[in-house]
Specification:
elongated; 19% strand; homodimer; protein biosynthesis (chains A, B); HisRS/HisZ (chains A, B)
Chain lengths: 438, 438
């Protein structure tokens, strides 16, 4: 007996039937369009990478438990990429000297993580990754902000639906290192705890800080910091530290640019934005859904000026973000922003049922003519189907026009055009029809 | 000491820098455009599939030695797909009853095989897969022929550059089973040897046949068959067998359609076309480069009416092909068919060098206005770069226009537009400039 195989995809991974594929194309096309509008160039790299590259960047949870990794027939350790940044930086490092700088690049790629699949999140996901390499000034981060906002606006989202919250890792240093005088190790641990702050009660957070060895005064100050307004910073961090702090000065400049460009409605300073990536060393930001029932982070980005050092003695500052397709799609659905995405096929050519091959030949020829005129056209291919069945098919497919050609049409070189929405039909000369198409 | 990582991609896999990505996009866009013009719908499925699905289809070389496979954290055996057909059929089987038939689908996907990387062939490759499911008539194969030819023509190829050679597996049965009366097992072994015929000398082929247990007369007849013209078939296979043979009758009909559509210049009957896929059970075809120095098969396709049976007690006839990106790209390069693919970015906004932030702000604003007018625009972001350096960058990038705004322009609300090809430049009112863009 033959073994019968499962028709399901691997758990947590998606089949894209034409309906889902239309949505995916809608999202990817918008991503591309906006990035190209900003002059960013598209690139790509293999989904399989040497394992070390992922170990080097984070060295944490992803590599240990979430990576799809294996050894190839030649003994090389490989992994399916769980994110796009390491490979991106690898490519930059590879042609470091040839590449014209600054570099503005984007890509759309599939990533895999071994996680428990759940609603709106699977084991594979796509991301748009966009970065600027080689610009130290805050103007680069400002451009990225504009890009992020325009990406969201391209889908019809507005400032009532999302906001971009930002802070700066160097400002966090002004608090932890310069104000509280923590040593580097304790500062890193404290920062990691701060990254979890929004999931904790104030008490649990304070307790966590004390466990790390902070005083309750220090913990209070950190907690206060994480919820303060920009103009309250000087109440927490002494003015003389602030005014010398690169992160603070960056933010002052960024805020002026945001004002000038009148994009304040989208951008909010939030010192509670920390992010988990150890390589972040400047601006950090996250885009949030403003839906009060589902106020979650959609995606984020940061400065990662020093990541390239894992590939050698290279210097190239970097800033950018990655935006996932699952969360975006959920956002679009929740805000009712997904348009009806109909068939791209406009014409359908029927075949008059009958033994004589002339019916099929006539229809095939019309199909060819329509395509040559640039019209997306599906042609029926069976010679014995009832016209009714064919028209039902066309209707279900959402086609606009059906071409019908029977005995009369063929002998008089005519075609009947049926509008499938209104059911109107007209018979015209074959040549006249072609003229109309041109 | 820090370990320094390699910047190379995994051996046999490709990084796509923006120049290579433009070429890839050029190819994929053409593939999509033509398939959509034929009313085919795009779909996709995960690059990781349960291992069994590949074992079931061919059970041969690919699975044993060429598959990238591993066991996941949950103990499931997985493989990175080496081809697109099994996953495609899996999706069809999964929603067998819901899907409107016939089904015309295409996808573009990345495949992986552990092979020795060589010029023009790597361990990963992309394929366009296009199929029709649910049409038994030869009209389906005929439509696929038209699609294949139009795909090649979309790249500028003509009938001096490529040809589509076809035969029919059932016609081969007329020879092996009905004429030579071989048993099924010997017929399969003979067919596999026939598939290698073009790589062998006539003597080696005859010898191979004899090793399988055929007489030298039988071997001669098979050899003669593989090089005969369509109208010589009856000299090899008795007319009474031919005229009852479904494959032969199919071919007669197909050849009439090819004549009617005047695509003879592209299509050649070639009984030497066998193909290695055991599931092929009707028309088989391959597209060949006609370059006399490099007369190789570019890609091929076939009927695979019974493949769906691996997913259960289902019936759905199928025909289609897969076309790879490496071979196509080589073909395009060899025939000099690759166009110059310039930057999609048209405008470049310079920043007048200076301490005052007004220069950057003015330039950023112009960048935004250009983008809002739908122009792809790259903006310089550094405030201290010499204009000369900026213009050199724009020139190397292949941009068309540079916008320059210094002291005069800013105070008089003007912009200077420099044509980077001709070096002409004009200064116009800001508002006038915007009007021109609209």
């Amino acid at each position: 007996m033959k073994e019968i195989l499962s028709t399901q995809p691997y758990i947590g991974a998606r089949d894209f039937y034409p309906e889902e594929m239309r949505i995916r194309n809608y999202i990817f096309d918008a991503w591309k369009r906006v990035c190209v509008r900003y002059g960013y160039e598209e690139y790509d790299f293999p989904i399989l990478e040497p394992l070390e590259i992922f170990a080097a960047k984070t060295g944490e949870e992803i590599v240990k438990t979430q990576l799809f990794s294996f050894v190839d027939q030649g003994g090389r350790s490989l992994a399916i990429r769980p994110e796009l940044t390491p490979g991106t930086v690898r490519m930059i490092a590879q042609k470091f000297n040839q590449l014209q700088k600054p570099i503005k690049w984007f890509m759309i790629g599939n990533n895999w993580r071994y996680e428990r699949p759940q609603m709106g999140r699977g084991r594979e996901f796509y991301q748009l990754e966009a970065n600027i390499f080689g610009v130290n000034e805050i103007s680069a981060d400002f451009e990225i902000f504009n890009l992020v906002i325009d990406l969201m606006k391209e889908f019809g989202a507005n400032s009532t639906m999302f906001e971009l919250k930002y802070s700066d890792r160097k400002l966090i240093n002004a608090l932890l290192l310069d104000t509280l005088k923590l040593d580097d190790e304790l500062a890193v641990q404290t920062r990691r705890l701060m990254d979890k702050r929004k999931k904790l009660t104030p008490e649990a957070f304070i307790e966590g800080c004390e466990k790390l060895g902070l005083t309750s005064d220090q913990a209070d100050l950190i907690n206060k910091f994480m919820f303060c307004e920009f103009n309250e910073l000087s109440q927490i961090i002494p003015q003389e530290i602030l005014s010398e702090n690169a992160g603070y000065l960056n933010l002052v400049n960024l805020r002026k640019m945001i004002d000038d460009a009148k994009i304040n409605e989208y951008c909010v300073f939030d010192p509670g934005i920390i992010r988990g990536f150890d390589y972040s060393d400047g601006l950090v930001y996250e885009v949030f859904d403003k839906n009060t029932k589902n106020r979650r982070s959609l995606f984020g980005g940061e400065r990662f000026d020093k990541l390239i050092e894992i590939f050698g003695n290279l210097e190239l500052v970097a800033t950018g973000f990655a935006m996932g397709d699952w969360t975006l799609l959920e956002f679009l659905k929740n805000w009712n922003l997904l348009p009806e995405l109909g068939s791209k096929t406009e014409y359908f050519v029927t075949v008059w049922p009958g033994e004589d091959t002339k019916y099929l030949e006539y229809s095939l020829k019309i199909g060819t003519l329509l395509r040559n005129a640039g019209k997306n056209t599906d042609t029926w291919l069976q010679t014995s189907s009832k016209l009714d069945k064919q028209l039902k098919y066309a209707d279900k497919k959402g086609y606009k026009f059906a071409i019908i050609a029977g005995e009369d049409e063929i002998s008089n070189k005519k075609v009947t055009i049926k509008n499938l929405k209104t059911a109107e039909q007209t018979t015209v000369e074959y040549n006249e029809f072609l003229k109309q198409l041109a």
